[in-house]
Design a protein that fits this description.
Elements: H1 22-35, H2 48-55, H3 59-71, E1 75-78, E2 82-85, H4 103-108, H5 145-161, H6 172-186, E3 195-198, H7 201-212, E4 218-223, H8 227-235, E5 239-246, E6 249-250, H9 252-258, E7 264-267, H10 281-294, E8 297-301, E9 326-331, E10 343-346, H11 352-362, H12 368-379, H13 382-408, E11 413-415, E12 423-428, H14 434-443, E13 449-450, E14 463-467, H15 473-494
Length: 495
């Protein structure tokens, strides 16, 4: 703009030094003048020739800008009256918030009751890069980047020639691969046509809530339990019944007293989230008996079973189900890479058509190429090899964290040794509050999740959920030192 004088056409000034093309600058400037009221509806604007002379622009530049404004409805040209600001625009286009209210408050007042999930914890660190010892992350160096790049290139070439036409359940080769994988690894009994591909486990839970229950229906929830499942069910208007956890998992007898006839029961039986205990065989049969006699549905979230440390994978709850009451949820975000948002539901046959129809109202499927790549990754044995390598590394890092806690945080934290392969719970000693402890840790550069954020009721023992899978042993030890220092400082302050 240096060679063009700053014009003042109708109060419009073109910015100096802008990298935008001149016609774009003029278009934006006139549009802004209309929206903020400097150019009123019906007011006349100069001809393109006059505007070009005033601004020192070519007539083509002005004509291009005015044509765009006319195409979008801001200007209108009439024979005999020239070009004017469109008369159909409101006289005042500026927003006017209600007195005493910010715009976001007006918005909040108009959203549905279902969307007001009021128990989401303030985990502000989720919006920035991970810091030790935040749970949930996998070791990035384990991801077979070169292999997956080759698979991706191969399938993108195939898509160009012949697009993947996934059926309504998902890409069939992927459903075949999943059905074979879960049968071998988890004892799940299913056919490929019982597998529904979804956009991650969270979408699977959302579908379960909306297909299997009506607002106000009761659902048993492990307490403490997986927060995102709680949010999904609460957003669907379900009535949460928090059922306590002990060393054998969900206490079915207590759940029966609290709510004898739930519509749903949500469980993580192979690795209880977040405590890591396994639902005992006796409890499994108790839960299945309840589902059979009360005609309840059981949602088995098997999100972490493949990383049980120190023991072989246990058979799924679904493998014991003789009455088609269990829906099995799985995903690949933990076992492969978090950004791979592909999950699956293994459904009783009677539910397949309904779930497929309802899912179609919510979304289509994950990208076909991603499904095809994942299908080959599983069917060629790469997933099993990746899991074995991950298990070895994560066990070493679990040992490193436990050793560091015992040597650096003795008397401050007591680590649980439940069968988990990516994080553990460290219980706080001496009556410390876990939320205050998490805040103190954050100041020292440590991300820890308070155990109470997983619970509906008050937890019996306060604790911190600490991840180790994506951190090297040296980083783990330094982080525990910082965490111990933060907790010691808390003790002095509270004392």
């Amino acid at each position: 703009m240096g060679k063009h004088p700053a014009g003042t056409l109708l109060g419009v000034a073109l910015p100096a030094g802008s990298g935008e093309p001149l016609h774009r600058q003029l278009y934006l400037a006139v549009k802004a003048a209309i929206l903020d009221g400097r150019l009123r509806p019906g007011s006349r604007v100069p001809s393109t020739r006059s505007a070009a002379e005033e601004l020192g622009l070519s007539r083509t530049t002005v004509l291009t800008a005015f044509e765009q404004l006319a195409a979008e409805g801001y200007l209108e040209a009439r024979v005999g009256s020239g070009t004017r600001v469109a008369r159909g625009l409101p006289a005042d286009l500026r927003p006017h918030p209600a007195p005493g209210r910010r715009p976001e408050q007006r918005l909040a007042a108009r959203i549905s009751r279902r969307s007001r999930v009021d128990d989401v914890p303030n985990l502000s660190f989720l919006g920035r890069a991970a810091r030790p010892l935040r749970p949930g992350g996998a070791e990035p160096s384990l991801f077979p980047t070169a292999l997956c790049s080759r698979l991706a290139a191969r399938h993108w070439r195939r898509i160009i020639r012949s697009p993947h036409n996934s059926d309504s359940l998902g890409y069939r080769p992927l459903r075949v691969a999943i059905s074979e994988h879960v049968a071998k690894m988890r004892g799940v009994r299913c056919e490929p046509d019982q597998v529904l591909i979804v956009g991650g486990a969270q979408q699977a839970l959302y579908l379960c809530a909306h297909v299997l229950a009506d607002p106000g229906d009761a659902i048993w929830m492990e307490d403490p339990g997986y927060p995102r499942a709680r949010w999904a069910f609460r957003s669907a208007g379900l009535r949460l019944v928090p059922v306590p956890i002990d060393g054998e998992g969900l206490v079915v007898s207590v759940g029966t007293k609290l709510c004898p006839s739930p519509r749903l029961a949500y469980v993580t039986p192979s690795f209880q989230c977040p405590l890591g205990v396994m639902l005992s065989l006796t409890r499994r049969f108790e839960l299945l008996s309840l589902a059979r006699h009360r005609r309840a549905w059981i949602i088995e979230d098997d999100y972490f079973s493949e990383y049980r440390a120190g023991s072989k994978a246990v058979a799924s709850l679904q493998s014991l189900d003789q009455d088609d009451r269990v829906l099995y949820v799985g995903n690949f975000s933990k076992s492969i890479v978090p950004s791979l948002r592909i999950g699956y539901l293994v459904l009783p046959g009677v539910l397949v058509e309904t779930f497929t129809r309802v899912r179609a109202t919510l979304s289509r499927q994950p990208p076909g190429a991603d499904q095809a790549i994942l299908a080959e990754f599983i069917s060629e044995g790469h997933l099993e090899r990746h899991l074995r390598a991950s298990q070895r590394l994560y066990r070493e890092r679990q040992d490193a964290l436990v050793d560091a806690l015992r040597s650096e945080a003795n008397g401050l934290l007591d680590a649980s040794l439940a069968g988990t392969g990516m994080y553990l719970v460290a219980f706080l000693q001496n009556g410390r509050h876990d939320r205050a402890a998490a805040r103190a840790a954050a100041i020292r550069g440590i991300d820890a999740i308070p155990l109470s954020s997983f619970a509906v009721k008050r937890v019996e023992r306060a604790g911190l959920v600490l991840g180790y899978a994506s951190y090297e042993p040296a980083v783990i030890r330094r982080s525990v030192e910082q965490l111990a220092s933060a907790l010691s400082a808390m003790t002095r302050t509270e004392g």
